[in-house]
Design goal:
The complex is a heterodimer of chains A (about 100) and B (about 500). Chain A has helices at about 5-15, 20-45, 75-80, and strands at about 65, 85, 90. By secondary structure, chain A is mainly α. Chain A has a domain at about 5-45: Histone, subunit A. In chain A, strands 2-3 form a two-stranded antiparallel sheet. With about 500 residues, chain B is α+β, with helices and mostly antiparallel strands. The chains are: A mainly alpha (about 100), B alpha+beta (about 500). Chains A and B meet through strand 1, helix 3 and strand 3 of A and strand 2, helix 2, strand 8 and strand 9 of B.
Chain lengths: ~100, ~500
């Protein structure tokens, strides 16, 4: 079964802020549908007695003590930023949305 | 249409509300990395590859934050899930550098609880808690250009110091049946959460610094006809008002939304299900994102973190550390301190209970502790437009000041001057009394000299006193107090005057 429609891909692209042309959508909905279908095959193998798992390794409760460790210096933190101003990361206008 | 009032609106509609409270934990470090969790540092100086979301970095859960979340959940009567996990909440906004926030979705650590909220008149409303889950805070955006808001800004600047700070989000079930007390209940609920997190010692609970923040959901539905069950009437469409950050604002936001939605409904217009923003300056809300289009967070299990599976022994051990419910504690303190209902309510509303308690702990009598915090200090805080705890005086210093009064070293008037000195950073009360020379003059020879001088200036007074008009001594006491700039012990001065006149006091 092909579970992924072209409109799904358009919606995902919008959510991921990826600008896609009609050609991109046509091409990618075909390709992504193949991947989704392949994953769906795996789901068929798992019976109801197999619980869904989010981790392949049976570990839990790996915690850290609440002890401060050194942070980066401000210039190091900002070193990879395309733009910085006033010790802060500078980002373009945020339009059409609110926090 | 005549302007609708809140009371009129609630005569026609039944309100249903829910609240999401975000509590910032006061752990030493962030939720998933060892950066310091401290308010007010220089921007981007408490950041590392993990909380900046740099590729290849791996988060590790803060044990203390998990402990705080469980203790909070237990205080809210929640069950603690035997296995819970984190999830990624995906969205694009520069305050999260990873393009997702680590939160909990289908397996929150704490779920299904209830909290008794005590209103001012002593009546109790039980609020159902759906869940309390752990997540990380976002960074802080500053919009540049325009009026400082997002509209018209040329660009924005981001500080990630707050990014990754541990939060617990507490979500209520819909709260029904509060009718015209909806705003009061909402306020009391958030106040109770604030009191609980402070009593637990897991957050400073400072709403003005954003340590406790609330989002308020509200909907209206028609009132049921007489004899009909209100609970059977379906809920109306709700709005969610974000970032309501003071108790007063919670009441006001509910007032505003009740009236706004009632006006729409009465005009036959739909209420749009949407996020709205609270504006403190105008006491009103404006629309933000509409839910349908924006809320698609594509949650999925966080692959970089392992499940949290607290042992039952540990949970029970933590249950043993829970403090008294704030309402019970208040009832007990009121009794112990001998406060009136008004004394107690004023102290609670001024957020002064713990300050008064600490002052009593340091040795002051309850009424004296109350008098300082609710009198002189409350006035000073009010004049300076700050909170009591922003004042540069500790409960121990207040107790010390009162001790000096009790010992007779200073009187009330001098104590206020000493307090002024303490607030100005001149040192402890005793140090200020010494450096400003505020001590009451109790040296008899100095007082006697001042009395004699005053008597010489008003020669008829002595005769009057000897004639039995003892009240005439008041003029001399006044003159001596003036001469000593208020530093004389008035009782002792009076004794000296009467002794000079040769009459018994």
């Amino acid at each position: 079964m092909s579970s992924l429609e072209r409109s799904d891909v358009a919606r995902l692209a919008a959510l991921a802020r990826i600008d896609m042309s009609d050609g991109d959508l046509d091409r990618l909905s075909g390709q992504l549908a193949v991947i989704v279908d392949a994953v769906a095959k795996v789901a068929e193998v798992a019976g109801e007695d197999v619980p869904a798992t989010s981790h392949p390794i049976p570990l839990s409760n790996i915690h850290r003590d609440d002890v401060v460790r050194p942070s980066l210096a401000q210039d190091a933190a900002l070193a990879g930023a395309p733009e910085a101003e006033d010790g802060r990361f500078r980002v373009p206008q945020i339009l059409g949305e609110d926090a | 249409m005549a302007a609708l009032t809140y009371d009129k609106a609630l005569e026609q509609f039944d309100p249903v509300f829910g609240i999401e409270v975000h509590v910032e934990l006061n752990t030493a470090t962030k939720m998933f990395c060892g950066c310091a969790n401290q308010f007010g540092a220089e921007p981007n100086t408490q950041v590392c590859p993990v909380c900046l979301g740099l590729p290849g970095s791996m988060p590790v859960t803060n044990q203390k934050a998990v402990e705080s979340a469980i203790r909070l959940g237990l205080s809210l009567g929640c069950s603690i899930r035997e296995s819970s996990r984190f999830a990624r909440k995906n969205y694009f906004y520069p305050d999260v550098s990873k393009n997702y926030q680590i939160s909990q979705y289908d397996e929150p650590t704490c779920f299904e609880g209830s909290l008794d909220v005590v209103l001012d008149d002593g009546s109790v409303v039980t609020v159902g808690i759906e869940r309390a889950h752990m997540e990380e805070d976002a960074g802080k955006n500053t919009h540049v250009g325009g009026s400082g808001g997002i509209q018209g800004a040329s660009h924005s600047l981001v500080d990630y110091n707050r990014g990754g700070v541990p939060l617990v989000e507490i979500v209520t079930h819909p709260i029904e049946g509060t009718a015209e007390r909806v705003a009061e209940v909402a306020r009391a609920y958030v106040a109770t959460i604030r009191d609980i997190v402070k009593a637990l010692g897991i957050s400073d609970g400072r709403m003005e610094q954003g340590s406790v923040r609330a989002d308020v959901n509200l909907s209206l539905r028609p009132k049921a006809a007489a004899g009909e069950d209100q609970a059977a009437v379906p809920f109306g469409k709700r709005s969610e008002t974000k970032n309501v950050n003071s108790l007063r604002a919670i009441e006001r936001a509910i007032h505003h939304e009740v009236v706004r939605q009632a006006e729409l409904l009465l005009a036959g217009q739909p209420v749009v299900q949407e996020t709205r923003h609270w504006h403190e300056d105008t006491n009103s809300t404006t629309p933000g994102r509409s839910k349908e289009q924006a809320e698609d967070y594509r949650y999925f299990p966080e692959p970089d973190l392992l499940p949290v599976e607290p042992s039952r022994e540990w949970v029970e051990e933590l249950r043993g550390t829970l403090p008294e419910h704030p309402a019970k504690m208040r009832a007990r303190l009121k009794e112990e301190w001998g406060f009136s209902d008004t004394d107690m309510r004023d102290a609670v509303n001024a957020d002064a209970l713990d300050l008064i308690a600490a002052t009593i702990e340091a040795g002051a009598k309850p009424q004296a502790a109350r008098k300082w915090w609710m009198g002189e200090l409350a006035r000073t805080a009010n004049d300076r437009e700050v909170t009591l705890r922003d004042l540069a005086v500790t409960p121990a210093q207040v107790a010390e000041l009162q001790g000096l009064v009790d010992e007779g070293k200073i009187n009330d008037k001098l104590a206020r001057q000493a307090l002024e000195g303490v607030l100005a950073g001149e040192g402890s009360p005793a140090e200020v009394v010494a450096s400003r020379g505020l001590e009451v003059v109790s040296d008899d020879s100095a007082l006697e000299a001042a009395v004699d001088e005053a008597l010489a200036a008003q020669p008829d007074v002595l005769a009057k006193i000897q004639d039995g008009k003892v009240q005439a001594a008041g003029a001399i006491v006044g003159a001596v107090m003036k001469a000593t700039r208020g530093q004389a012990d008035a009782g002792r001065v009076r004794e000296i005057i009467l002794a000079r006149a040769g009459v018994e006091g």
